[in-house]
Amino acid sequence: MKKSILIILFVIFSTGLSAQINMVSKKIFLDSLNRETTSPDYSYTRVITNYSQKSARYVVTDFYKNGRKKMTGATLDRDILKREGEFICYYKNGAKESVVEYSDDHKAGKEINWYQNQNKKSEKQNLWDPKAKKSQTLILNCWNENKMQTVTDGNGEYEETDGPVTQKGEIKNGLKEGIWQGNDSSKNISFTDNYAKGILISGISIDANNVKTFYSSLNEKQTGKKVSKLK
Fold this sequence. Notes:
Blueprint: H1 2-24, E1 26-30, E2 44-48, E3 58-64, E4 69-75, E5 83-90, E6 96-103, E7 106-114, E8 120-129, E9 134-143, E10 149-152, E11 155-162, E12 165-172, E13 175-184, E14 189-196, E15 199-206, E16 212-215, H2 218-223
Antiparallel strand pairs: 1-2, 2-3, 3-4, 4-5, 5-6, 6-7, 7-8, 8-9, 9-10, 10-11, 11-12, 12-13, 13-14, 14-15, 15-16
């Protein structure tokens, strides 16, 4: 009899605890582009642990389908990911991929990246000017997969991959300098850019049909539209 009572109490306690946890947290499903989805073919799950409480920050953690962490940090908005403070990202095997500091959803501060085997990949310093709404990234140190350092104290040769875009060129005083060459697999184009102190001043892209597009700023390159310049 006593055993039955204990079991009933345990079930009641567990149910109440579960309800309490669900009350203060929210779980959503995300597709491969990090958009919320109801599809059973979701790619990730996201848990906002203190969702129902009013807070200046909300802890957010993304998980791979295998249950391992993909990302963890804090957001200023419980419904929209607005990063603040330190964010840690992980590879699917659980190895650490990056540690990045954010301020008001902009990279601001130190950034460290690792290869999947945990060899260090790069050290960067991100700058964010909230008044001018401008950001800048300084490449401080970089290593290739063979542990060879290719950028030292902001100078050297650097190759980066950001999604479908791969490019490489010279780093001088932490910034892109001179000719940079690369390709964008999503648009099936190759490009050659010319930088001065980290600012894109000219470039040309060539598509699969050998059609050339010229641009004179990063905005023109991204939008494909000419930007009127003030005289």
